[in-house]
Specification:
heterodimer, A: Aspartate Aminotransferase, domain 1, four-stranded antiparallel beta sheet, B: about 500 residues, alpha/beta, 19 helices, cysteine-S-conjugate beta-lyase activity (chain A), PyrdxlP-dep_Trfase (chain A), acetylation (chain A), Kynurenine-oxoglutarate_AT (chain A)
C-alpha cells in the first residue's frame, strides 16, 4: 500500500468514532486471512497498468475541505448557478420518454450536430459530426480515450509542468513515458506578475522531442497557471510537432474563459496541425455544469476513430437526457455568439471582475499572485508570508501541501497546492505556490475576504 | 513484402517511407500500392516491379495510381483531404491494445434497421416510458439544489452509495460499506471495463461462458488478457415442445478443464444475455467451488437480476459461502428502472478488489454525472419502501414483461420459428434451423455466419429486426451456433402488435 493510501485509511478511521472500530476489525481479519492463504493475496493483486497510480490529490484535499466552516477555494467547481436556460432545457428534456433510453454511442445526434456547427465556425472548416467528433464522459473521458487510443508501451509524451494532475497517471497507465518540461518565469521587477511571464524555452522544448515522442499534451488556457498561449508560442509547438511527426492533445476546456487583452487560439487551426491534433472541450466548464460530465473531442477521423474504439469498449454511450439538454443550450448560444448576453461572452466578463478582486485580496495579505490571462484559477507565491508551519506533521511533504493544510485548519480557507500539478522531480520548483479557484459566488469571496482581512490584522 | 523503394525513390512525388494504419495492419505505402496492383493484374513479383518501374516514370501517373488504390481502400472519403492527412502522419497511430477490438457488429444492424421500415426487436432497450417515480426522481434532481449540477464524490454520490449498500447488503446477506464496497460507474458497461482494467494483466486468462454479451471478449483483449471460452450446450428434454434456457448447461468436467494457473477471472452473467438463462443454485455452486479451488475472481454481471420469470429465483453468487471476498457484483440502473439512457451502473465487492477499481476509475472518468445518480438513489429509496409488495416495480415489471415474453413466443411459433423459453433477461433466442434447411443460400460476405445473413434478409424482406446469436460467440465457435437469432421482448404493446402484423404477412407468404 502506498503512503497516501495508508494516510487515507487513517483519515477514514478518524472520522466518526463507531466506524473506527468496524474498520479496524475488517482490516485485522483480512490480515489473518492473508497469512493462511498467501495464494489469494497474489491473485488479487492489481493489474500492472495501475501500479503506483492509486493516490489522488483531489480525494485527499476534498475530504479536508468538506468541513462546512471552511471557505472552499480549492476544487475547481462553480458554487454559482448554471445559466437559467441551461437548467430549463434539462427540465424540459426530463419529460421526454424516449430520451431515457440509449442514444448513439459516439454522441447523441443533435449534440454532435450542434458541436459540428459551433466548431465549424471556430475552425473555419466543415467538421463531420459523426466522424470528427466524439462525445465523452467529461473532458477527463476525452483525455482517457485519446491516451488509451493513441499511446502505447514505450511512447513518450511531453507534459508541460505544472499540469492538470491526471495527465501523468493516464500516460503511465497506457504504458507511455512522460517527459516533463517546466514553464519558467521571466524576471518581473516592478510590474505585476502575469501568467504570460511564464513561458517555455524553445530550445529546451526542442530537446524534449525525439523519434519516440508520440504526443505532446497542451493545455490552453492553462490549469493551474491561467496562461493563454500566444500565437508565437503555439507556432513553436506546432513546428516541433510537424518536424517530429508528433500528435498534439490539446486540452482546451477553458476555451471561453479568456480575459481582456487575450485571445484563445486553437493549435489545430495552424497549418499542418489539423491532421495531428485532438482538441478537447468540456460542457462542465463551458456552461458551469461540471456535474453533467460531458466533454467532446474534435479531430480528423483517422485519429477520432481510435478514440471511438476505446469508447465502444469502455462505456459505449454517454447519458442521453444530458446530451440533448446540452445540445439545446448550445443552439441558444450559437445563435447569439456576437451578443454580450451569450454565455460564452458573459461568463468571462463576470469572472474577470472576480479575478481582479482575488488579485487584490491576495496582494493585500502578502501572498504574491500571478495574474491569470484565462481560466478560473489563480496561483500565488505563499512563501513570503513565512507562515509558522512547525506544528504540521508529515515533514516530508512539499511546503505548499503543509501550507494548505495549515491554512485550512487555522484560517478556514482551502486551496490546492501547486506541487500536486508537478511530477516528483519538479515538485520543488513549484512548492511555494498555492492555487485558488475564483468561480465562486460573491458571498464566498466575501467570506474569503473576511478571512484574509483578519489574517492581515493578526500579522500587524 | 517486396522492396521497391529504390525504383520509386527517383520520383519527386513519391514518398516511399510513409505508412498509414488501418485497423491494426501496417504496411509501407509503396508496397501496398504494388500489392493492390499485382492482385489486379496477376503479375508475379519480379514482373510487377519491372512493369511498375516503367509505368511510374511519370510523376503524375504515380499520383493517379496512388489515388486509385486509395479509392479502393476508402471509398467515399474526401480524397484530397484524405491524402493530405495520410501523407503527413508517418507513425503508427493507434495503440496496440486496440488490435482486434475495433470491430462493432451492432453498427451494421442498427443502420439497416433505421433504413428499412422494420419493427425493432433487436437492441435491448425498452420503447415505453420508465416508471413514474423514476421520471419524477429525475425531475426533482434537476429542479432541486442547483449544486447537483456540479461534481459529486468521485466514487459515487453518497446518498446513492448508501442506499445501494443497504439494499444489496440485505440481499447478499453481507455488511456493505457505502464508501469501501460500492463504486458507481457509467452504466454496467463502465463497471465491466473498470473491473477488467483493474484486475486483468498481460497473459491473464479470463473464462467467458458462451454465448456471452459481446463486450466481454474485447474488454479482455484490451486488458492484454486471454479469453478462454466454454459453451453452454443444449441438452433438450423430450417432454416439452419448446426448449427452455434452463436446458442450456455447462459440462462440469469441461468447465473444470478451463481453469489453469493463469486464470485470473471468470465472468458470469445471470440472467444471461442472449439466452435468458438463470443459473440455478447448483450451477452457481459449481462455479463457486472452482473459483475458490483455483483462487479466481468472479465478475458477476447481474444487470437483469429483477427480470426473472415462471417463478425462477435470481441468486447472486456473492451470497454463497466464501464468495463475497472474491466476487465483483455488477448492476445497472438502466435495466433496473427502464432508464438505459441514464447510464448509471455500480459494482459491489470487497475493499481488497474495489480499491483497484477505484484507481482505474479515478484515472479514467473520475466522476459520474450527479443528477442521474440522485434520481437513481431516490428510485431505490422508493423501492426499498415497497420491497416484496405487489406495488413494487421489481414485482410488477417482471410480471408485465413475462406476459410480453409469452406473447412473443406464441407469435414467433406461428411462422415456424422455434423460440427458446427464456427464464430471465430482456431476450429470447429462436432456432432458425428450418429456415436454414429451406433457404441455405442467403446473400452475405464470404465468412458470414448464416444467422447474420438471415437477420439481414429478415430486416429487408420481412420488416423485423433481431440480432444474430453468432455475435455472442467467439470467432472459432460461431460456425457451430449460426442457427439462432435473438429477439428483445421488452417492448410496448403497439410494437408487439406491429410484430404480429409482420409475422402474419410472413405466414401468409409461406402459405401461398
Amino acid at each position: 500500500m502506498t503512503q497516501s493510501m495508508f494516510l487515507a485509511q487513517r483519515r477514514l478511521c478518524s472520522v466518526g468514532g463507531s466506524r473506527t472500530k468496524y474498520l479496524k476489525t475488517i482490516y485485522s481479519s483480512k490480515i489473518s486471512r492473508f497469512s493462511t492463504s498467501p495464494k489469494m493475496s497474489l491473485k488479487f493483486k492489481n493489474a500492472k497498468r495501475i501500479e503506483g497510480l492509486d493516490s489522488n490529490v483531489w480525494i485527499e484535499f476534498t475530504k479536508l475541505a468538506a468541513d462546512p466552516s471552511v471557505v472552499n477555494l480549492g476544487q475547481g467547481l462553480p458554487d454559482i448557478s448554471p445559466p437559467l436556460y441551461v437548467k430549463e432545457e434539462l427540465s424540459k428534456i426530463a419529460a421526454i420518454d424516449s430520451l431515457n433510453q440509449y442514444t448513439r454511442g459516439f454522441g447523441h445526434p443533435s449534440l454532435v450536430k450542434a458541436l459540428s456547427c459551433l466548431y465549424g465556425k471556430l475552425y473555419q472548416k466543415q467538421i463531420d459530426p459523426n466522424k470528427e467528433i466524439l462525445v465523452t464522459v467529461g473532458a477527463y473521458g476525452s483525455l482517457f480515450n485519446a491516451i488509451q487510443g493513441l499511446i502505447d508501451e514505450g511512447d513518450e509524451v511531453i507534459i508541460i509542468v505544472p499540469f492538470y494532475d491526471c495527465y501523468e497517471p493516464m500516460v503511465r497507465m497506457a504504458g507511455g513515458t512522460p517527459v516533463f518540461i517546466s514553464l519558467r518565469s521571466k524576471p518581473v521587477d516592478g510590474k505585476k506578475w502575469s501568467s504570460s511571464d511564464w513561458t517555455l524555452d524553445p530550445e529546451e522544448l526542442a530537446s524534449k522531442f525525439n523519434s519516440k515522442t508520440k504526443a505532446i499534451i497542451l493545455n490552453t488556457p492553462h490549469n493551474p497557471m491561467g496562461k493563454v498561449y500566444t500565437k508565437e508560442e503555439l507556432q513553436v509547438i506546432a513546428d516541433l510537432c510537424i518536424k517530429y511527426d508528433t500528435l498534439c492533445i490539446s486540452d482546451e476546456v477553458y476555451e471561453w474563459l479568456v480575459y481582456t487583452g487575450n485571445k484563445h487560439l486553437k493549435i489545430a487551426t495552424f497549418p499542418g496541425m489539423w491532421e495531428r491534433t485532438i482538441t478537447i472541450g468540456s460542457a462542465g466548464k463551458t456552461f458551469s455544469v461540471t456535474g453533467w460530465k460531458l466533454g467532446w473531442t474534435v479531430g480528423p477521423n483517422h485519429l477520432i476513430k481510435h478514440l471511438q474504439t476505446v469508447q465502444q469498449n469502455s462505456i459505449y454511450t454517454c447519458a442521453t437526457p444530458l446530451q440533448e439538454a446540452l445540445a439545446q443550450a448550445f443552439w441558444i448560444d450559437i445563435k447569439r455568439m456576437d451578443d454580450p448576453e451569450c454565455y460564452f461572452n458573459s461568463l468571462p466578463k463576470e469572472l474577470e471582475v472576480k479575478r481582479d478582486r482575488m488579485v487584490h485580496l491576495l496582494d493585500s495579505v502578502g501572498l504574491k499572485p500571478i495574474i491569470p490571462d484565462g481560466g478560473y484559477f489563480i496561483i500565488a507565491d505563499v512563501s513570503l508570508l513565512d507562515a509558522d508551519l512547525s506544528d504540521m506533521k508529515h515533514n516530508n511533504e512539499p511546503y505548499d501541501y503543509k501550507f494548505v493544510k495549515w491554512m485550512t485548519k487555522n484560517k478556514k480557507l482551502s486551496a490546492i497546492p501547486v506541487s500536486a500539478f508537478c511530477n516528483t522531480e519538479t515538485k520543488l520548483q513549484f512548492e511555494k505556490f498555492v492555487r485558488f479557484c475564483f468561480i465562486k459566488k460573491d458571498s464566498t469571496l466575501d467570506a474569503a475576504e473576511e478571512i484574509i482581512k483578519a489574517w492581515n490584522r493578526q500579522k500587524s | 513484402m517486396w522492396d521497391t523503394a529504390s525504383s520509386l525513390d527517383s520520383f519527386p512525388n513519391a514518398h516511399p517511407t510513409y505508412s498509414f494504419q488501418d485497423s491494426g495492419t501496417s504496411f509501407e505505402f509503396t508496397t501496398g500500392v504494388l500489392l493492390c496492383f499485382s492482385r489486379t493484374l496477376n503479375f508475379g513479383s519480379h514482373q510487377c516491379s519491372m512493369a511498375l518501374g516503367g509505368m511510374f516514370r511519370n510523376a503524375a501517373a504515380t499520383y493517379l495510381h496512388l489515388v486509385g488504390s486509395l479509392q479502393r481502400k476508402k471509398a467515399g472519403a474526401s480524397l484530397t483531404r484524405y491524402l493530405h492527412q495520410t501523407l503527413t502522419m508517418r507513425k503508427r497511430l493507434q495503440a496496440r491494445r486496440l488490435d482486434r477490438i475495433d470491430h462493432n457488429p451492432w453498427v451494421v444492424f442498427t443502420k439497416l434497421a433505421s433504413e428499412c421500415d422494420a419493427v425493432n426487436l433487436g437492441q435491448g432497450f425498452p420503447d415505453f416510458p420508465p416508471p413514474d417515480f423514476a421520471v419524477e426522481a429525475f425531475q426533482q434532481a434537476i429542479s432541486g439544489d442547483f449544486m447537483l449540477n456540479q461534481y459529486t464524490r468521485a466514487f459515487g454520490y453518497p446518498p446513492l452509495t448508501k442506499i445501494l449498500a443497504s439494499f444489496f447488503g440485505k440481499l447478499l446477506g453481507q455488511e456493505i460499506d457505502p464508501f469501501e464496497n460500492v463504486l458507481v460507474t457509467v452504466g454496467a458497461y463502465g463497471a465491466l471495463f473498470t473491473a477488467f482494467q483493474a484486475l486483468v494483466d498481460e497473459g491473464d486468462e479470463v473464462i467467458i461462458i458462451e454465448p456471452s454479451f459481446d463486450c466481454y471478449e474485447p474488454m479482455t483483449l484490451m486488458a492484454g488478457g486471454r479469453p478462454v471460452f466454454v459453451s453452454l450446450k443444449l441438452t433438450p428434454t423430450k417432454d416439452r415442445e419448446l426448449d427452455s434456457s434452463s436446458d442450456w448447461q455447462l459440462d462440469p468436467t469441461e468447465l473444470a478443464s478451463k481453469f489453469t494457473s493463469r486464470t485470473k477471472a471468470l465472468i458470469l452473467n445471470t440472467p444471461n444475455n442472449p439466452l435468458g438463462k438463470v443459473f440455478s443454485k447448483a450451477e452457481l455452486e459449481l462455479v463457486a467451488s472452482l473459483c475458490q479451488q483455483h483462487d479466481v475472481v468472479c465478475i458477476s454481471d447481474e444487470v437483469y437480476q429483477w427480470l426473472v420469470y415462471d417463478g425462477c429465483q435470481h441468486i447472486s453468487i456473492a451470497s454463497l459461502p466464501g464468495m463475497w471476498e472474491r466476487t465483483l457484483t455488477i448492476g445497472s440502473a438502466g435495466k433496473t428502472f427502464s432508464v438505459t439512457g441514464w447510464k448509471v451502473g455500480w459494482v459491489l465487492g470487497p475493499n481488497s478488489l474495489m480499491k483497484h477499481l477505484r484507481t482505474v476509475h479515478q484515472n479514467s472518468i473520475f466522476h459520474c454525472p450527479t443528477q442521474s445518480q440522485a434520481a437513481v438513489a431516490q428510485s431505490f429509496q422508493r423501492e426499498q419502501l415497497h420491497f416484496g409488495q405487489p406495488s413494487s416495480y421489481f414485482v410488477q415489471f417482471p410480471q408485465a414483461v413475462q406476459r410480453k415474453r409469452d406473447h412473443m413466443i406464441r407469435s414467433l411459433q406461428s411462422v415456424g420459428l422455434r423460440p427458446v423459453i427464456s427464464q430471465g433477461s430482456y431476450f429470447l433466442i429462436t432456432d432458425i434451423s428450418d429456415f436454414k434447411r429451406r433457404m441455405p443460400d442467403l446473400p452475405g460476405a464470404v465468412d458470414e455466419p448464416y444467422d447474420s445473413r438471415f437477420v439481414k434478409w429478415m430486416i429487408k424482406n420481412k420488416g423485423l429486426v433481431a440480432i444474430p446469436v453468432s455475435v455472442f460467440y467467439s470467432q472459432s465457435h460461431q460456425k457451430h451456433f449460426d442457427h439462432y437469432i435473438r429477439f428483445c421482448f421488452v417492448k410496448d404493446e403497439s410494437t408487439l402488435q406491429a410484430m404480429d402484423k409482420k409475422l402474419q404477412e410472413w405466414k401468409d407468404e409461406l402459405g401461398a
